[in-house]
Amino acid sequence: MNIRHAETAEEILRCHPLMRHLRPRLESAEQFLDCYRRQATAGYRLLVRWSGETPVALAGYRFSENLIHGQHLYVDDFVSNPESRGLGHGTALLEFLKAEAKALGCAQLVLDTAIDNVNAQRLYRRTGMTGGGLHFFAKLA
After folding, report:
1. φ/ψ of residue 86, rounded to 5
2. In this structure, how many other beta carbons lie within 10 angstroms of the beta carbon of residue 11?
3. 33 contacts 123 by C-beta, under 8 angstroms
């Protein structure tokens, strides 16, 4: 197992089946690649835990700054293969992201999770994260 960024179109396309567990609206691999490319222009990257050439967990993240958190690393997407959960993949990615955030001079690693996603919340707490609010949104279309 190793952790490295998905850099090529081929590697990003390989991540599509895993990302669909989290983002089922991304029906095709090409749609996913297009979304990735648009977000990459704003600094979005995919960090992947690989088993050979197969992604077993991934985190989509970006460097950000706002008034509430200052400079921080924001994790947009975080998912592991349902068949291999509990094997340390998520913990390994979070620790890598924390180191990446520190290297960039960030004071925080920030992410949102669903209120009912108690397994993810347990993982975040085990890795030293704390809850700090609720995320609200309004669907406009």
Report:
1. 85, 5
2. 16
3. no
